[in-house]
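Q: How do we represent a protein-ligand complex in a form that can be generated token by token?
A: Start from the inputs.
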Amino acid sequence: MAHAILSASGAYRWLACTPSARLEQQFKDEQSPYAAEGTRAHAAAEHILVREIWPEKAFPQDAPTFDDKEMENAVRRYVDICLEKVNEARARTQDADIQVEARVDFSRWVPEGFGTGDMVIVADGVLEIVDLKYGKGVPVSAENNPQMRLYALGAYEANNLFYDIEQVRMTIVQPRLDSISSDLISIEDLLAWGDSIKDTALAAFDGKGKCNPGKHCGFCKARHNCRALADKCMAEYRAHCDKEPKLLLDTEVAEILDLVDMITKWAKDIKDYAFNMAVNEGKIWPGYKLVEGRSSRKIVDPESAAKALLDADYQDIYKPQELKGITDLTKLVGKKELNTLIGKFIEKPEGKPTLVPLSDKREPLEMKQVNVDDFDDTLVD
Ligand code: SF4
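Then emit the structure tokens for the protein with iron/sulfur cluster bound:
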């Protein structure tokens, strides 16, 4: 599948760091099991929507395929939301144009910009854009979301001659997080936003500007080699070298806390990258070599081993049977059904105290006597 250099999904990154899109071209696509899972969920959603909206349309397979019950439930939740919007639009405009996996071209604002909107519903009044995000990492807000706005611009550009569109509603559905986020924008504001990013998009297309490290670096394909990100991560360390007093001040510890997540992730990314290059591409890193790692012995034929032990009259050789964890059971049964069946046996214990920035939405803890061992040493930002 062809990829735009300035993709809508990467817009939050190339808008913040204009050289990133061209730097990313030097690296291969990263295949993650989560991305592949998302692709299968999208294919299943497309299948059901096409069947529901155009029953007469031929489809190569009879039924959509799901990895598990969790995927089926999540996809059906997204489909229900889409179908509700389709019905609303048809009630408003009889010949509403429904598009599943719609190619949208936003090149009027972003050089060579195009992408695929999961669901686009064109009707008088409100144009609807719906996006399925199958991941369950963090909830993604539709508010001021550049990916959704670029889809909206493309869909508006292609359809505004045929429909009287006044507003666009952009909705992101993350069924596995129970998250549905919407944003409504007038066409005037949308077009003004499109014009406001034109210069930045042009700089990004030309690979111009200064690298600007930040939270948007997370999925950048250049993150392992990016000098600006390395400089930012190392700068805090260097800032405290050869200074007095010999112990860090509280304010200095707090400054480092601000960067801990970024530095930890960056260090792990570098390690993974160096390892993968050594194993897959034969890369020799100065001062390093590949060796065989430590390994544990394992029983290769458990049935024969068990028989030999039982024949020798050892009876107590099996582990007790153990119930799968909630994540695996959710995959097997689906969230709703699992809650019906065993919800009363599940409890959520109090979380351990966690140190977070003041901007975090959670209420501060009333601190009584807290043992240091009770602390979760994960820092969340
Ligand atoms: S890692 Fe971050 S700073 Fe570096 S190119 Fe990518 S987005 Fe820009």
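Residues 223-281 form one domain. The chain has three domains: 11-206, 223-281, 306-345.
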